[in-house]
Amino acid sequence: MITLDIASAEVSDCTGDERQEEHAFVARLQSGDVRALEQLFETYVPRLYRFVWRSMGGDILDVEDVLQETMVAALRTLHRFRGECGLYTWLCAIARHKVQDHIRRQQRSRRRISPDTLDELSEMPGSSPPVEGQVGQRQALEQALQGLPVDYRTVLVGKYIDGFTVSELAQIMARSEKSVESLLTRARVALRERLAHTVLE
Predict the structure, then answer these.
(1) Which residues, including other chains, have CB under 8 Å from residue 8's CB and lie 6 or more apart?
(2) Which end of the chain lies in a sparser environment, N or C, as judged by fewer CB atoms within 10 Å?
(3) Which among 147, 65, 142 is positioned nearest to 103, based on CA atoms?
C-alpha cells in the first residue's frame, strides 16, 4: 500500500513560489471559484485515482466510489486546509482514510455470519417469513443476505448484528443519518423479498 510518506515526497520539492501559487489556488477554491474547482479535478483527480488504485487494487467501481467519497470529503472540509502540507498530500490523507473505511465496510459485509448472529438478524422488525434458527432457514437467510448489494449488507449487519446506532453507521458509511435510515428501510424490504423468493424456490 502506498503510504503518506511517499505521497509527501511528491510535493516536498515545491519551491517557495510554487507553494505561494498553491495557497492562492486554495484560496480561490475556498471562495467558490468555479474555474478553480474545474482545475482541481483536472489536476488532482487523475493522480488521486492512481493513488487509490494502488492502495486498493480490486474492482474499478470500488476505486471510483472511494475517489468520489474523497473529493466530496475534501470539498466539505476545504476550510480546514492550512497549508501545513501540500494540497496533494492532504488529499491523499483523506483518500487513505476513505480506502480504509471502504475495506472495513467490505470485510464486515462479506464475513461469514454465525448461526447466532443470523438468528439475531432474522428477528429484525418486520422480518417475514419468520426465521427460527433451523439449519435450512439459516442457510436461506445467509444466501439472501449475501445476494444483497454491499451497502444493504453493510447497513443490516451493522445495525442488527454489530449494534451500531444510525449515527455511527452514518459515520462509517459517510452518509447522512437520514440517508442511513432510508437505506435501512430499503435493505429490510430487499431482504424480506429475497427471503420470500428463496422460500418459494
Answers:
(1) 85, 86, 89
(2) C
(3) 65
What's the CA gap between 71 and 164, in Å, rounded? 26
Q: Give residue-wise pLDDT tens across range 19-64.
A: 788 888 988 988 888 999 999 999 999 988 988 887 776 667 788 8
Domains and CATH numbers, the chain: 4-108 (1.10.1740.10), 112-200 (1.10.10.10)
pTM score of the predicted model: 0.50
Eight-state DSSP code of residue 111: S
CB 109 within 8 A of CB 154: yes
Residue type, 123: E
